[in-house]
């Protein structure tokens, strides 16, 4: 379960496991090994994990900078979302939504996240209240994190290609 006490550990675990996948470092980090550490201690732990586990020759300074920068970006994003107030569009807008049917994080996800489902009561993820009545929902067998994996990106590209008008060679819409 994600709590206020371990949310930084969860964020850094995701960043670390993404970097580990990129550079072939095994095994994956866990929430438990990062929980209870200060942000800087956890960033150093993630940096060391990636460097020690990767077959690549990595610069500790560069990996630390990457982890620190991503953490700061995600932290800022979270703070901005706390103050964000969504408002309906002035006029209805045709909207396409790609819904991850497995929720925020699926059981046995590749990132070591605890399973966090969805309540399923609003398939538009709240966009229907803001975009208008024309919300086209496409279900993908994925969670919030795996929706960007190759097979899902192909499905998204197919829908986008069919939905958006083609661009003419001069950049104008046809």
Helix content: 40-55%
**Radius of gyration, Cα only, in angstroms?**
19 Å
Counting DSSP E segments of at least 2 residues, the number of strands comes to 2
Shape: globular
The end-to-end distance, rounded to whole angstroms, is 49 Å
Structural class determined from secondary elements: mainly alpha
Q: In order across it, which strands form the biggest sheet?
A: 1-2
Beta-strand residue percentage: 5-15%
Number of helices in the DSSP assignment: 6
Low-confidence segments: none
Mean pLDDT: 87
Describe this structure in words.
With 174 residues, the chain is mostly helical. It has six helices and two strands; from the N terminus they run H-H-H-H-E-H-E-H. The chain has helices at residues 7-23, 31-34, 39-53, 60-83, 128-131, 150-163, and strands spanning 95-100, 135-140. The chain has a two-stranded parallel ribbon with strand order 1-2. The longest helix has 24 residues, at 60-83. The radius of gyration is 19 Å and the shape is globular. The protein starts with 6 loop residues before the first helix and ends in an 11-residue tail after the last helix.
